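Please check the following.

. . .
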Amino acid sequence: MATQAEVRAERLAQLPFEVSVNAGPQSFGGFVAAVKEIVSHRELLDLLIRRELKSRYKDSTLGFFWSLVKPLTQLLIYYVFIGQVLQASRGVPDFAIFVFSGLTLWGLYSEIITTGTSSIVTNAGLIKKVYLPREIFPLAATGSAVFNFLIQLGILLIAIIALGQFPVSLNLLYVPAGVAIVLIWGIALAILLSALNVYLRDIQYLVEVAMLLLFWASPIVYSWKLITDAAASHAWLLDVYLLNPISIAMLAFQRGLWKAGSETRTIDDRVIPPQAWPHYMDLQLLGAAIAGLIVLFIAQRVFSRLQGNFAQEI
């Protein structure tokens, strides 16, 4: 006579291997339901963000100070070697503010993507033990990245104010616009890549290479003027370049905080005219935001389809 444990094991064996967990219908209604479920677990999301921050600097003497070391080191490297040695700063007034603005926003995007991609795999223990909306893990990685971004943004604003270069104009509105686009695209890709990484672990290594390429494909350590000059005889290349939503977000962020880019300056007895920003920049920002929301919807639907076997795969 079979024991109770054997009966239970036989019943489990008869269940299909692929079980859809909260997949929901592949429609807008399913997306809304997923958002509502995440909102209902907002306290858990807050706890996961706190855990992420604490674990990152656990047993560290300097703690959150380390979140400033990397961007400040990057600033020093790019300012000295790119700006001074390679003379990139000759045509860029207040080059330090320009570079640090780009590095600050790029740090947010890069951290969302890299930590978000591995967020499901690194939280395998929780996923196997309890049920909760799995999108919460890349979102927790995003919350941690936002916290570090705010610290770096605070340092940037202090430096801008100390140098007397705080921009008091409507251009400041470009700052939240640029941040919003980075967050939309960052969350969308983090959700999508975190699901794919469960089934193909090479994804996280491909992401590292892609982020390195994307860094140099975005106007972070070189100005928009350098791009327009290089593509002067091929104007269509500028349209291709701006298809990258991070490029237009970066330009918006710089336009809002880099005051010298909107004024005529003199460097080494040379008159530097104001930065010529892309035409129809406002429409391009709106287009990047709408496209990002569409990608976010698709990413969540793909995530919902793939999450059924997370526990088995990890």
Q: What stands out?
A: Residues 61-313 form one domain. Confidence is low (pLDDT under 50) at residues 15-25. The longest helix spans residues 136-162.
